[in-house]
């Protein structure tokens, strides 16, 4: 590895939010993972640097808190470029997703209702979350059930487009719900996937009731 490239990589990594690279690594020995993702075990930092240089790559400290620190041989410039691209895409996606608000009244007429439900569907299809608010004026506060009826009617109308994130709740004179697009609502449930495997295991134990049914049938035929 040329000294110019080594200095450039070290300069990139001098920021607090970047990992230590090459000669900036302070540990005397590291747990090394080579460029082929193979674990080389614990080696001296000097030896790891020599291996990285021989491969014309960088030695990057990927787990500084470990004992000894874990280092990987890689092209740090390429890795950093890909990381920045992922971060940029994530920020772009977050920026593009805005919360849209649709306001209704407890006694909303059918034409206005249909128009606003259509708008809600359009926003959800575009990937936006939608806040639906029912505004109560004066004495209407005594009839909150009408607001819930409107919100329930909305949810029934857009069931194929979005999922309710929270139950209706009052915020001042408004009763509100938040609706997320179907895709986002499903991805939010992904962490619970392991529970499905438990269900599958339970399903495999279901033959027992079948045997019981056969015994009952035999007893009936005997009668």
Provide a descriptive summary of the structure in words.
With about 220 residues, the chain is an alpha+beta fold. The protein has two domains: about 5-80, Ubiquitin-like (UB roll) (Roll); about 95-185, Translation initiation factor 3 (IF-3), C-terminal domain (Translation Initiation Factor IF3, 2-Layer Sandwich). It contains eight helices and nine strands. The protein has helices at about 5-10, 45-55, 75-95, 110-125, 145-155, 180-190, 195-205, 205-220; strands at about 30-35, 40-45, 60-65, 70-75, 100-105, 130-135, 160-165, 170, 175-180. The strands form two sheets. Strands 5, 6, 7, 8 and 9 form a five-stranded mixed sheet that branches. The chain has a four-stranded mixed sheet with strand order 2-1-4-3. A hairpin with a 5-residue loop joins β1 (about 30-35) and β2 (about 40-45). The chain is rod-shaped. The N and C termini lie far apart (about 90 Å).
Condensed summary:
This protein has helices spanning 3-12, 45-54, 76-96, 110-125, 144-157, 182-188, 194-204, 207-222, and strands spanning 29-33, 39-44, 58-63, 70-74, 99-104, 129-135, 162-164, 169-171, 174-181. It is built from eight helices and nine strands.
């Amino acid at each position: 590895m040329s000294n110019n490239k080594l200095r450039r990589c070290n300069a990139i990594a001098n920021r607090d939010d970047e990992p230590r690279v090459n000669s900036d690594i302070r540990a005397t020995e590291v747990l090394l993972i080579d460029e082929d993702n193979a674990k080389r075990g614990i080696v001296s930092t000097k030896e790891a640097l020599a291996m990285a240089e021989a491969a014309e790559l960088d030695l990057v400290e990927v787990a500084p808190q470990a004992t000894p620190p874990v280092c990987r041989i890689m092209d740090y410039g390429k890795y950093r470029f890909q990381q920045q691209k992922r971060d940029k895409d994530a920020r772009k996606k977050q920026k593009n997703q805005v919360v849209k608000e649709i306001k209704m009244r407890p006694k909303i007429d059918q034409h206005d209702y249909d128009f606003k439900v259509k708008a809600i569907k359009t926003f959800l299809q575009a990937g936006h979350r939608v806040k639906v608010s029912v505004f109560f004026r004066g004495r209407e506060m005594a009839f909150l059930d009408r607001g819930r009826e409107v919100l329930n009617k909305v949810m029934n109308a857009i069931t194929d487009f979005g999922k309710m994130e929270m139950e209706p709740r009052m915020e001042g004179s408004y009763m509100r719900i938040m609706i997320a697009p179907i895709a986002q609502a499903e991805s939010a449930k992904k962490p619970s996937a392991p529970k499905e495997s438990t269900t599958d295991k339970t399903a495999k134990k279901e033959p027992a009731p079948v045997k019981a049914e056969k015994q009952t049938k035999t007893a009936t035929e005997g009668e």
